[in-house]
Hints:
41% of the residues lie in helices and 8% in strands. By secondary structure, it is α/β, with parallel strands linked by helices. It is extended, with a radius of gyration of 29 Å.
Amino acid sequence: MARMGRPGMSDAQKRELWDRWKAGESISQIARALDKPPGSVFTVLKSNGGYVPPLRRRRPGTLSFADREEISRGLARGESMRSIARSLGLKPGTPASTVSREIARNKGITRYRAIDAEDRSWDRARRPKPRLLARNPALRQLVAEKLAQDWSPEQIAGYLAKTYRPGSGMRVSHETIYKSLFIQARGVLAKELTKHHRSGRPTRRNIHNTVTGQWRSQIKDAIPISQRPPEVDDRAIPGHWEGDLLLGRGLTQIATLVERTTRFTVLVQLDGRDMHTVTRGLAATMTRLPEQVRKTLTWDRGMELAGHKELAATTGLQVYFADPRSPWQRGTNENTNRLLRQYLPKGTSMADLAQDDLDRIAHKLNTRPRKTLEFDTPGDRLAALLR
């Protein structure tokens, strides 16, 4: 198989990537496990439409990667074809022409490289038979027309099964349609037809590749929001915060925190979104606030706050995690992030923002009257509580 994805991902890593995807892990989880950028993971997944490829098996009697490494070393030592063939330990009677053909089809004696030859070997071994939609133009055209009318693959398959008799050649499963859509290397259905797919996903996730019902952020000893003290809900007592990351273009981000009672906003400059960077940044900023307003913090379930115990020990904030897909449980923070987009529009890089820049933006929010505070400012409300 040709090497897919960004440079630096070995075949073993790709196999692990697909195994983890099949087990239901998210792209971000796989990226952390492999220590690779999420974009690299997505590139490999998209290359096969999200479908887990079968395990590659070498046909008995063919050259292995170790054999090709031995050929490469033999060439470097200036050995003859016959000598290299003997050193490979192939079955008795294997002619030296086996080695000479291998070298000739892979750039010759001076440019032969084992890893390149291995890749080309896998490419040549791939002989997929033409797919059903590729073999049947009438069926392909009908499927394309229905997709263009915003029909789902399942609706198309059901319609064909109801309209055409078995053996007519005009039936196809919905999975075959999905594969023809998402695996663009097949060149069966036009890429533009994916725009009519209502999920908007660039890859297929079937029943075997689902994360439904899983707590994907496996944060050790995470305390769910259901265990948060009831006093947090009524906003009568200050010191309870909500927080999240606000993402910018590229791998840039800041942390946003807002106090539930006063709507006082704090912004934190971050050089990365990994656990250690986020934990240190939040701790350094929050410890500058008075202890009486450091009671709890409710965060999204992202792994960037997996170091919540360290944060709690440093700041005194007890950290709680919102439920999956429940942004309303941090509604104050979500609303604040929308307000911040006035100053930090989507698609803006945050790489050049210093903490002073963020403090100035936070000051603008904290000195603006808020209807929910009866047109007091968050700064005024917090100051009154601290007197």
